[in-house]
Specification:
The complex is a heterotrimer of chains A (498), B (356) and C (303).
Chain A lengths: L4 E10 L2 E11 L4 E5 L6 H8 L7 E6 L2 E3 L4 H7 L1 E4 L11 H6 L6 H15 L14 H13 L5 E5 L7 H16 L3 E6 L2 H7 L2 E6 L2 E6 L6 H9 L17 E10 L9 E9 L3 E5 L6 H9 L11 E3 L2 E2 L5 H6 L2 E4 L14 H9 L5 E2 L2 E2 L1 H14 L16 H13 L5 E5 L7 H16 L3 E5 L3 H7 L2 E6 L2 E2 L3 E2 L5 H8 L5
Parallel strand pairs in A: 3-8, 3-9, 6-7, 7-8, 13-20, 13-21, 16-19, 19-20
Antiparallel strand pairs in A: 1-2, 1-4, 4-5, 9-10, 11-12, 11-14, 14-15, 17-18, 21-22, 21-23
Chain B lengths: L1 E6 L5 H25 L4 H10 L5 H26 L7 H18 L8 H27 L3 H21 L34 H18 L1 H11 L1 H7 L3 H28 L10 H11 L4 H24 L5 H22 E6 L5
Antiparallel strand pairs in B: 1-2
Helix pairs in contact in B: 1-2, 1-13, 2-12, 3-7, 3-8, 3-10, 3-11, 3-12, 4-5, 4-6, 4-10, 4-11, 5-6, 5-10, 7-8, 7-12, 8-9, 11-12, 11-13
Chain C lengths: L2 H28 L7 H19 L2 H25 L4 H20 L13 E2 L14 E2 L1 H19 L1 H11 L1 H6 L4 H27 L11 H11 L4 H15 L1 H7 L6 H20 L2 H7 L11
Antiparallel strand pairs in C: 1-2
Helix pairs in contact in C: 1-5, 1-8, 1-9, 1-10, 2-3, 2-4, 2-8, 2-9, 3-4, 3-8, 5-6, 9-10, 9-12
The chains are: A alpha/beta (498), B mainly alpha (356), C mainly alpha (303).
């Protein structure tokens, strides 16, 4: 049987980087085919080539036995290829049906009816008239999937679809995908979560550094084997936090209410939490439920001048203090977005060290001490194993994992009493991620109070002492990691906790 | 075949230095064609614009005279531009500075006090800073766009100036010209180079350039401004105040423009005139960009622009070109400069394959 | 003609150049691009429109040439902002200076020359109304401009073209991911804005004050930029704002009618002062600004 889609020798370069080299891939109708690889392995580039967003430098694409040239996503859609993007290609200021109308022909009334029908048939219910900015992340994913299905695709590409779903919804999504497969649709499923792939997929193609390293049936062999193929060496062992004496309360939120003045933001209601020295508290939940607002309220990027007492650092009210004031009291923060927030892309690493480490003797009487700045940066680069030519390299030139190690290192070298880390391993390769987790645990053992906001449940279970779940701007009670389960956390993630 | 830009790993220093020169050559060629198309003697025009300013000591000293205010204002503006605070109303701040400085000699036309001149300079600087401060207040308190506010304030300042020189401050013996009385000697800047009109504004501008260099290169406060301009979210993350950056940027810009205004009335003009500025406030924006927003680069670009001003005056006579030709040339210069700037961080790639 | 009708009619005519330019800028900004060169494009259009109408005695030709001039200058901006990914504020200022310089250069030989304004087009019925009848007796450009505001509203809210434009302005990366040619759409929007700005300038020089004087645009381009902000990127609110400023620019006449003697400079400053006040009042509502503003406005996009 001819495969539905066949790639041979497909390559793509960006500048000097080979994002894809000589990729061969065949996808059959009526199968779910996994593309597996860690961050930076070239999965997203490959999907963009198949969907016509980017054009390959070399190689051939054959669709149903005919060689084709995809010059735009519109071409791909015409052939019968649909794609659900990881960071969604929806427009917040438009309604659901307007978002559909951008690429699907038909009158609005007609589209609205078809949206309802598809929703009913595949368990993807969504209100066609709703504005996208009012939808949760999960609902947005449904909108994207429906938008693809309206065009009756024969091949559906999903880029990391489960990263935005709580565990219960993952099962529902898989039911939908299996139903589509039963109708003869081919599905390309991109993920780095191995258990999911073993659960859902018929075939897996593994990418490493832009090349295909293996093709196999994921149900044969363990998740550990898959991981080894994916990263090319043994998987680093999980860290084992040891029980440990607790210090005093370092960070407390008591009944924090925050009405976002951003119409696209999330308001927070009655949040309470407390972190003591020597422990890691994890905030679980799908991002988009108030994580950004929570982090900014703790860091002082958003202040609460009228509610000073609601946020306390080391027992002192700090709600009215800005970010600089809170840092001066021993607070440090690794934000979720590295470029443009945690670091200035067009500045050198040395200047990026100065950004928050200026109080470590890098500034004297208002003058920058270049020598001290360089020394601090060089020290950070060595101690935190940042791969870079040196302190003068621009932050924007570093890979995601290396820059994250630099920012984590910089913040840790401030010897904070309280460290807040948001999404510590987003877009970071497995080696760097495991390194960062080990350092967080080491810091906890040394007595720091650490708050980690993450949407990776496994990561939180690995390093945290306690968990709280953020859902629609509200926090669950504290759950001790030893006494709770992924299912219980998942229940809180969909707001169904008791 | 298709062309596209690709980001360089690091900035290219040679391109950074070459960019203004490339822009100058391209602007010259374009205006040559343009003037020829308009039936003007293009060769003569370019000769007057670009070479005559350097021929003869007097011409050259006039270049030095014009260089002062341009450099001074451009240094102040560049600090704001690097912090993403776009003060495009230096023209108005200059006018208000000139007005404030003129108040003393207008009300004390017979004054002889040695304090008159220093007081005028202080008043001029404060006036300019105050005028820009309105924009700073509106931006930080009401979120009002400073580009539009500073521009509107300039249009208002022009009307205020018109009102004063046509009304209360008009020289009663001035044959109804829109200008004030001639200032007394105590209100005039001393001449630095005998036989020319070069005064203290040039050394003043050079000192300002030195201060700007220290601020942007060595002071933590300057670093904070840079971060605010390059990555506003990083500045918020680090706790650098945005409001403070807005105030500092606008106050410095207003202060330098006001100072330049005081230097003009107390220097070459010797009175308050309706045409007190001749567009320095706008040209300084171009000077700032052409100098790469860099304090040292601005010293060079201010010199260049000053020569262009003198050349423009010459061309009016010798090639029958209107003053506007200078603005056309300035506009072209900025257009080509912004184009060549891209090559500092990018390189142009030819690639085979289908068009995008 | 009653003084009230005179003022109302004058308001419409005075509002037209600002409205025309602002509607063009609205489309440009909705696509995510900030072109601050409006003043220069209007000035250039004013000069070209005047020169061509003066030479050919054909106002339609004058408007067409002005539109072409506006487009050409806007393409210089597009080359910098889209092609070279330059800072849009600086690129707008650059073509602003260039346009104003070109305007003076082209208009110089015709300094103080006059033109005859074209005939007006009265709306049958309404123009015969007592008291306010003259309001409905205006030149055709006024009517077309008002009609254009309605058309732009309809296109933005009820057509696929409008959806695409808004999508590109909100999130160019997502728009590209689903296959829209972001740069081409923005280029078209910029050229459209250039054409309208050119015609707005021609209206000011050939119909509104059919006399050539250097610098006759006098900040109207900047007020048009401000109008887009006041109107929170909505065509009808922008129209309302333009009418308000039209009335303000007649401040002198109104004051005269009321028998108030004020210095002319004070009256001339009035529109600028009101611009600042309105800007502060409207911008201070951050929530509303965030809801209406164009998310990618002013940010360079490559690819």
């Amino acid at each position: 049987m001819t495969p539905l889609l066949q790639l041979s020798g497909v390559s793509k370069r960006y500048g000097g980087v080979h994002a894809n080299s000589g990729i061969d891939l065949g996808v059959d109708a009526g199968t779910i085919h996994a593309i597996l690889g860690e961050n930076g392995a070239g999965k997203s580039t490959l999907m963009k080539l198949i969907y016509g967003v980017e054009k390959p430098d070399d190689g051939q694409v054959v669709w149903k036995g005919q060689p084709v040239t995809l010059t735009s996503p519109a071409d791909a859609r015409r052939l019968g290829i649909g794609m659900v993007f990881q960071h969604f290609s929806l427009f917040e200021t438009l309604s659901v049906v307007q978002n559909m109308a951008l690429i699907v022909p038909g009158s609005k009334a007609d589209l609205a009816a078809r949206i309802r029908d598809l929703g009913a048939a595949f368990g993807l219910s969504v209100d066609p008239q709703a504005m996208v900015h009012a939808l949760s992340v999960g609902e947005r994913q449904r909108v994207e999937i429906i938008r693809c299905l309206l065009l009756n695709p024969e091949l559906l590409i999903l880029d990391e679809p489960t990263s935005v779903l709580p565990p219960q919804s993952v099962a529902l999504l898989f039911d939908t995908l299996r139903a589509l497969k039963a109708q003869g649709m081919a599905i390309l499923f991109i993920s780095h979560k191995l258990e999911e792939i073993r659960d859902l997929c018929d075939t897996a193609t593994i990418l490493r550094q832009g090349r295909v390293t293996a093709r196999l049936d994921p149900r044969e062999g363990s998740a550990r084997d898959l991981a080894t193929l994916m990263i090319g060496r043994e998987v680093p062992p999980a860290v084992q936090p040891t029980p440990h004496g607790l210090g005093e309360e370092r960070l407390t939120l008591s009944g924090l209410d925050y009405a976002s003045d951003d119409p696209f933001g999330v308001s927070l209601t009655d949040l309470s939490l407390s972190v003591r020295g020597g422990e890691i508290l994890g905030i679980a939940g799908i991002s988009g439920n108030g994580q950004q607002e929570l982090a900014a309220l703790i860091s002082g990027e958003i202040t609460l001048p009228r509610a000073r007492d609601v946020v306390r650092l080391m027992g002192k009210p700090v709600g009215d203090l800005g970010a600089a004031g809170r840092r001066a009291r021993g607070f440090a923060f690794v934000p979720e977005d590295r470029l443009g927030r945690g670091a200035v892309p067009d500045m050198s690493l040395a200047d990026n060290a100065l950004l928050t480490a200026h109080s470590r003797g890098l500034v004297q009487r208002g003058f920058i001490r270049r020598r001290a700045e360089r020394a601090f940066t060089a020290d950070c680069i060595t101690r935190y194993d940042v791969r870079t030519p040196g302190p003068q390299a621009e932050a924007g030139a570093l890979s995601g994992g290396n820059l994250q190690k630099f920012i984590v290192g910089r913040e840790m070298m401030l010897d904070p009493q309280v460290l807040l880390v948001a999404q510590p391993t987003w877009g970071v390769d497995i080696g760097a991620a495991s390194d960062i987790r080990q350092r967080l645990v080491a810091m906890r053992n040394a007595g720091a109070a650490i708050l980690v906001i993450s949407e990776e449940i496994d990561e939180l279970f690995e390093i945290c002492d306690r968990l709280q779940v953020l859902h629609k701007g509200r926090l669950s009670p504290s759950l001790a990691v030893g006494a709770t389960t992924v299912d219980e956390v998942g229940t809180w993630m969909i707001g169904a906790g008791s | 075949m298709r062309l596209h830009f690709e980001r360089r790993e690091t900035m290219s220093r040679p391109v950074m230095l070459a960019a203004p020169l490339i822009a100058l050559v391209l602007a010259m060629l374009t205006s040559l064609i343009l003037f020829a198309a308009l039936g003007k003697p293009a060769g003569q025009a370019l000769y007057s614009l670009l070479l005559e300013p350097f021929i003869g000591w007097y011409n050259f000293s006039e270049v030095l005279l014009k260089m002062g205010p341009l450099m001074l204002i451009a240094q102040g503006l560049a600090i704001g531009f690097r912090a993403n605070v776009f003060n495009i109303g230096a023209e108005g701040q200059l006018i208000i500075g000139a007005l404030c400085a003129s108040a003393l000699p207008v009300y004390f036309p017979e004054g002889t006090s040695a304090l008159m001149l220093p007081a005028m300079i202080v008043l001029g600087a404060l006036g300019g800073a105050l005028w820009a401060g309105i924009a700073a207040g509106l931006r930080s308190r009401f979120n009002a766009n400073e580009i539009l506010v500073t521009l509107m304030l300039t249009l208002i300042a022009t009307q205020v100036l018109n009102y004063m020189v046509l009304g209360p401050w008009k020289d009663p013996h001035g044959f109804n010209f829109p200008q004030s009385v001639i200032f007394p000697d105590a209100a005039l800047l001393p001449i630095l180079l005998p036989g020319t009109r070069v005064n203290v504004s040039l050394p003043g501008a050079l000192i300002a350039s030195g201060l700007a260099y220290v601020l942007m290169r060595h002071r933590f406060a300057g670093f904070q401004l840079l971060v605010g301009g390059m990555a506003p979210r990083a500045a918020r993350y680090a706790g650098f105040s945005e409001g403070r950056a807005v105030w500092i940027s606008l106050l410095i810009g207003g202060l330098t423009a006001g100072l330049a205004g005081a230097f003009e009335v107390a220097g070459p003009l010797g009175q308050l005139q309706r045409s007190v500025s001749s567009g320095y406030g706008y040209s300084a924006i171009i000077v700032a960009y052409l100098g790469g927003l860099n304090p040292l680069g601005i010293v060079v670009s201010a010199f260049l622009m000053a020569a262009l001003f003198i050349g423009g005056d010459n061309a009016m006579v010798s090639a029958d070109l209107p003053v506007a030709a200078v603005f056309v040339f300035q506009g072209l210069l900025l257009v080509f400069y912004l184009g060549s700037l891209t090559f500092i961080r990018h390189r142009l790639i030819f690639s085979r394959g289908r068009p995008a | 003609m009653t003084i009230l009708a005179f003022i109302l009619a004058g308001t419409l005519a005075a509002a037209t150049p600002m409205l025309l330019a602002a509607l063009g800028e609205l489309i440009v900004e909705r696509s995510g691009v900030l072109n601050l060169g409006l003043e220069g494009m209007m000035a250039l259009g004013a000069a070209i429109g005047f020169v061509v109408t003066y030479q050919t005695h054909n106002p339609v030709l004058g408007f067409a040439a002005a539109a072409l001039g506006g487009i050409l200058l806007s393409l210089v901006f597009a080359a910098l902002a889209l092609g070279f990914m330059a800072n849009q504020v600086a690129a707008g200022l650059a073509i602003g200076v260039l346009g104003q310089g070109m305007s003076s250069l082209l208009g110089k030989p015709l300094e103080s020359q006059t033109l005859t304004a074209p005939d007006t087009l009265a709306i049958p019925g309404l123009a015969d109304l007592p008291l306010i009848g003259p309001v409905f007796d205006q030149d055709i450009v006024v009517w077309l401009t008002l009609l254009l505001a309605v058309v732009i509203w309809a296109v933005l809210n009820h057509t696929k073209l409008g959806l695409i434009l808004r999508a590109v302005g909100e999130n160019p990366h997502a728009a590209r991911a689903i296959g829209f040619r972001v740069l081409r759409i923005r280029l078209a929007a910029i050229a459209f804005g250039g054409a309208l700005a050119g015609m707005a300038g021609a209206y000011a020089s050939t119909i509104y004050t059919p006399l050539w004087a250097d610098g006759l645009i006098a900040g109207r381009g900047w007020i048009a930029v401000a109008l887009v902000v006041f109107g929170t990127w909505q065509p009808f609110r922008i129209t309302f704002g333009a009418l308000l400023f039209g009335a303000l620019s007649l401040g002198g006449l109104i004051a005269q009618a009321g028998g108030i003697a004020l210095p002319s400079q004070l009256l001339a400053s009035l529109p600028y002062v009101v611009t600042i006040v309105m800007l502060a009042v409207i911008s201070s509502n951050r929530r509303r600004m965030r809801l209406n503003t164009v998310a990618s406005l002013g940010q360079p996009f490559s690819g």
